[in-house]
Design a protein that fits this description.
mainly beta
Length: about 250
């Protein structure tokens, strides 16, 4: 869930620029096959963003974000770490992303409304710093820095109701993403022969749906649902809810 505050600027050519800040909180509960126990990650974050939008529906969006990952796991037995394990550790991550897209309406009015189709493309880079902790048997476990580069393409189909002071915009979307990771190795006692490197590289398919609703002239809420499936993992659901206040 996130909340943000932004401000709209109008250029001499009637293009619009939005600048703002946002803060939020996320939680992850992964399900790892053949491993019993509880694994959770709490992730508060904050950042800044800017959006440029012209009259033709073309937009460019840039975001910079910092995030803290508070990791906790409680596992009865994971082989090398015995007999049981309960660990808390944290990592910091920073990311930057850029997105470009264009919205095509089936009708052209001063206040666009009706069905629309919107293709968009995004590139994003994330860096997560290293961490270390001691296991129950005093084994020293070190996680190296990780870098993630991702490219996404999404096609959105929706409907804009923008009449008589009412703004409501439901949509569905489908997309494809490709990810490349470097680092993130997990080493036991810093021995290279006792290491594990998670592999999240490859492509995944995403589907989703959501809506935006304007509560007041300067207050808007949104809800977004996404599910994804990749070669080595599935994300059955991810929900993003937010509030935007325009100064």
């Amino acid at each position: 869930m996130d909340i943000g505050i932004d401000r709209a600027w109008t250029t001499c050519s009637d293009d619009e620029i939005f600048t703002g800040v946002f803060f939020g909180y996320g939680k992850i509960n992964p399900n790892i096959p053949n491993i019993d126990g509880d694994i959770t990650t709490d992730a508060p974050y904050g950042g800044i963003y800017g959006t440029w939008l012209n009259e033709c529906g073309v937009y460019i969006d840039a975001v910079a974000k910092a995030q803290r990952f508070n990791n906790h796991f409680n596992i009865p037995n994971v082989g090398l770490i015995t007999p049981s394990e309960s660990v808390d550790y944290h990592q910091w991550g920073v990311s930057v992303s850029a997105e470009v897209g264009k919205r095509f309406y089936t009708c052209c009015e001063q206040q666009p409304s009706g069905f629309f189709i919107e293709p968009e493309a995004q590139v994003a880079y994330t860096h997560v710093n290293s961490a270390n902790y001691n296991a129950a048997d005093l084994t020293r476990i070190t996680i190296s820095d990780a870098n993630v580069l991702q490219a996404r393409g999404i096609l959105m189909l929706g409907y804009t109701l923008n009449q008589c002071g009412t703004f409501f915009e439901p949509y569905v979307k489908i997309g494809e993403a490709s990810q490349n990771t470097n680092g993130g190795n997990l080493n036991l006692n810093q021995l290279s022969d006792l290491s594990y490197q998670p592999n999240l590289d490859g492509a995944r398919t995403e589907i989703g749906a959501g809506f935006s609703y304007r509560v007041a002239d300067n207050l808007q809420v949104h809800l977004d649902y996404v599910a994804a499936t990749g070669q080595d993992y599935n994300i059955p659901w991810a929900i993003n809810a937010g509030i935007r206040y325009i100064m």
